[in-house]
Amino acid sequence: MSPRQACLACLERDPAALLEAALWVAAEHDSSVHPPLIMLQVKTLQQEVSAGLPMLPLSELAQPLLRRLNALGFQQDEYHPIRPQAALLDKVLERRRGQPLALALLTLELARGLSIPLEGVNFPGHFLLRVPGADHLLDPCGGRRLYPADCRELLGRQFGPQLQLNADHLLTATPKQMLQRLSRNLRQLHSTHDDDLAALKDAERVLQLGPATASDYLARATLYQHLDCPQAERYDLEYALLLSDDPIQRLRLTERLGQLHQPPPSVH
């Protein structure tokens, strides 16, 4: 079974083996990564975290769990520009630094092992966590509580005042949505660091994990352009054009398609 197949198989379990799936993503980029062995190390970490938690009802332990992880050194990676290792879970566990989503995936795994209720929230620009039914969200980078006013402020810092907070920003994320978001993050990080072949693996995984957007096809088309694969680039540009409802984007896609050399006619 390939790392990609193992990743997808983890998501089909009930419940989904989310952290292991993310480790198989790392294994796809580095053949020395051995997810089953790392999962044993996570079990050891779970015991260490559990020993430092207060005696509270399980429903009140999510924030102490995040604070305990923070005290053990698990924090947001502040290095700029952000590197792929901030989203590769083997490196996050090794360095104890990562993007919010990567830290959230680890926290969700520990919460599951400790029977602490917790779910992911697909907040734009900064992945968040929530205890089901709570009136606040939790920042995976330390455990800070975020109420609606805090969420509006966070959204404004990420995207500016033109983007208003709405209910869609606070939806619970499914395991596949979280792995798709992780794959988008890695695609961007690998692209930024000029590793087009690694980014292409991530781009393909994005399309496998769920409904893709015009931007997802456009991102892969750009990678194919860099790799001098004009036919594959054309296919993705045409698909992006089909999915796009932005008039400006549609115009740019049409212009870009027009600049591509037409494939030679087949001979019958």
From TrEMBL:
Entry superkingdom: Bacteria
Pfam families: TPR_9, Transglut_core2
Segments forming domain Protein SirB1 N-terminal: 41-183
InterPro entries: SirB1_N (IPR032698)
Coiled coil spans: none
Family: Belongs to the UPF0162 family.
Name by which UniProt lists this protein: Tetratricopeptide repeat protein
Species the sequence originates in: Pseudomonas alkylphenolica
